[in-house]
Amino acid sequence: MQVIGLKALMSIVTGLVLCYLLLSSKAFACDIKVFQAYVRATPPGVNTAAAYLTLGNFADQKCVLVGVISNRAKQVMIHQNQLQGDMMHMRHLSQLEILGRSRFTFKPGGHHLMLSGLSEALKEGQQLTLKLQFESGQVLVVRLPVLAVGQEPDDMLNY
Ligand SMILES: [Cu+2]
Predict the structure, then answer these.
(1) Whether pLDDT at 24 is above 60
(2) Domain 32-147, what fold?
(3) What's the CA gap between 113 and 55, in Å, rounded?
(4) Which of 78, 86, 107, 159 is 20 to 30 A (C-alpha) from 51?
(5) Domain assignments of the chain as residue spans, ordered by start
(6) What are φ and ψ of residue 11, in 5° steps?
(7) pLDDT per residue over 97-113, tens digit each?
(8) Distance, CA 100 to ligand 1 centroid (Å)?
(9) What would the DSSP string read from start to end of 111-148?
(10) Beta strands in 21-72 (DSSP E)
(11) Are residues 102 and 57 in contact, defined by beta-carbon separation less than 8 angstroms?
(12) Å from CA of 115 to ligand 1 middle
């Protein structure tokens, strides 16, 4: 009987260790702030759009963006523009690392968030909501103003 008791105790200890590991991985949570986020208004008949933003990582550890979703687009992908010969191609990245204490900028001609299968046109003055999913399990909800061509984003925080 005592042996069974010991086994039971061991499984409790294992349970505690697992809990501790889960808690300690949460301690490495991302501390991301979003700056200068915007998306371009779409011309008639176009159902794709590019969104730009700066992600500031205020934690010491790297933070990994693993997915983006929007209720107005079928798909949102992380794209990187790449020059191949004299042709510009868009490369799809499955994830993006933001190093600790640094910032990463999505900007025209570089990285962007590619929205495809838009349910309706994005019009100037509207707001688009994106949910950024991180490897840590955190989800950041960002509201991006829809800007007309030539309109520049404010230097502001977007949550
Ligand atoms: Cu693209």
Answers:
(1) no
(2) Immunoglobulin-like (2.60.40)
(3) 12
(4) 86
(5) 1-28, 32-147
(6) -70, -30
(7) 999 999 999 999 999 99
(8) 26
(9) EEEEEEEESS---TT-EEEEEEEETTS-EEEEEEEEE-
(10) 32-40, 48-57, 63-69
(11) yes
(12) 8
Q: pLDDT, tens digit, for every residue of 62-98?
A: 999 999 999 999 999 999 998 888 888 999 999 999 9
Sorting pLDDT into bands at 50, 70 and 90, what band is 23? very low
Find out whether 120 and 46 touch, Cβ atoms under 8 Å: no
Predicted TM-score (pTM) of the model is 0.79
Q: Which residues contact 135 (CB under 8 A, 6 or more apart)?
A: 63, 64, 65, 66, 95
Do 119 and 72 form a contact (C-beta atoms < 8 A)?
yes
Residues having C-beta closer than 5 Å to ion ligand 1: 79, 90, 114
